[in-house]
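Q: Could you fold this chain for me?
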Amino acid sequence: MDDLSPADTTATYATINMTGIGALTNEFDRSELFGLIAPATGANNVVITAAASQGSIAGGGESVNEADQTTGWGTAATNSAPTDTASTVTVTSATNELVVDNVAGGDQTTQTATVGAGQTERWDSSGVDLNGFAIGSTKAGAASVVMSWTLNNAAGWASVGVSIKEAAAGGGGAGGPVGYRNLLGVGMFVAANPVMRRRMMLAGLAGVVLRRLLRG
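A: Sure. Below is the predicted structure, expressed as structure tokens.
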């Protein structure tokens, strides 16, 4: 019951199935990333369906402009630790790409995390509601990008990161750097920008399985 398989969680955006990009379970904590190329415009919901064995979940959404419409993203990287005061995951990327990470962990209502240098925090659902932390961020791409967070207390964590590929030049859109739109914060509701081209919808899901529930 502690370890959840990828089949245990699904995500949809505007009722369309999202693709699982990467996932990792670390004993009681699970982190997942989902993606959808060329999503519907307008205000739509991200709906997460999770196994009943998950004690609590939180997530965030991100719309990305000028993203590749064929491959979309690279190979996900994962990392975890049974207890540490920092989380890290190293993602293979490239200039003009965008790296996204999602981290789940902790077991205290006072647990907080500070985003690493050069990263932009995109969602943070730490503390009382989760009895841990659920966090996500982005960072400009390079050959190899380290995504990191500093924790106020040593804790177990699971981290997933991936690089979003930029759109090729031509074909009706600029081939410049991946752009960021609509930071959506914590939760499952997504307000997409209706004027974006070559869009991609990303959802980060952090499932924090409550230790006290599992241990009885």
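A (continued): The first helix runs from residue 211 to 214.
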